[in-house]
Amino acid sequence: MLVNNRPHPLHLTGGISRMTKVDTSYAWLALYFLLNLALTIYNKAILSNYKFGFPWTLTGIHTLCSAAGALTMAKLGYFTPAQLGERENMVMLMFSFLYTLNIAISNVSLNEVTVAFHQVVRAMTPVFTIAISILFLGKKYSAMTFVSLIPLLLGVYMATMGDYSYTAMGFILTVLGTVLAAVKTVVTNRIQVGRLQLHPLDLLLRMSPLAFVQTVIFSWMRGELEAVIAFSRTEMSYKLVLVLLVNGIIAFFLNYVSFTANKKTSALTMTVAANVKQVLSIVVAVTVFHTTIGFLNGLGILLTLLGGAFYSYIDLQEKNKRMRPLTPAIPPPSPPQSSEKAELMKVRIEN
């Protein structure tokens, strides 16, 4: 019988496939940066050019468009929604409330403190993320990870140097908002990589409608809903409706990319990315909106960017170290071939 001795196809496994996964995760992270900055500029333009000063309504539009976008993706077959039980649905409800409460606390605290103080305290989110991950998830971080956060935190402090006035209630609310932001990021990661293993679009589909309802309730409680109705009667136009719709579509893609990047990287990486994005927003404000900054602010921006790059380098090195297979010092002996086994059996029989 003829045997076809064609070589076996090459399978890219082990380190190569893992490196591809790491590269993909950072590609999603880069996309998260771009969309986050784009939405920041877009929101600023809407609030400035169209005098649409209704942050809760804008958040409601984001959650509504995210729900519609995720539902459309499900109908087109991009993902299949998971079958969840009563306990899992309760987790989704609590997560949506955490998502909305995080926004609410952040907005309320901004009325009690200056923007500079708010940004500095929010820069501590990676520290709270590490503490939560260690205390509740049993995670361990290397010494170099902690060292890489030092220039990042110092850079954000320098970049936002200015008026640090605040009230006692404002301080408490700002710290509470920072803790909630860390908890939200950690929970988002656990929902997608833990026992539930939800697809990012599936998570968005379940969370967004609940967050939309809660946002409308918060808007009504703060009196914004009545102001929006009055604004719509006199100032609303087809152009503004189109602008708000495009804003909501960008928010949908940002939420999807954010959840995917969180799933492919880690909660700590996402909080570090949020800090760097915060400083990049200052750069955008300087270049697009002609905001004036001082020498120390500029030095802080540079330090933050370098700190973010340093953290990314350390994170990538440690991922490669965890994924590198262990090679034994002495290779195990190869099993004898079938011909060698036959010879051994023949010798034993003759003896």
Automatic annotation (TrEMBL):
Coiled coil: none annotated. The keyword Transmembrane applies. SUPFAM superfamilies: Multidrug resistance efflux transporter EmrE (SSF103481). This is UAA transporter. The gene is DRP1. It is a multi-pass membrane protein. It comes from Actinomortierella ambigua. Residues 29-312 form the Sugar phosphate transporter domain. One of its GO terms (cellular component) is membrane. The lineage of its organism: Eukaryota, Fungi, Fungi incertae sedis, Mucoromycota, Mortierellomycotina.
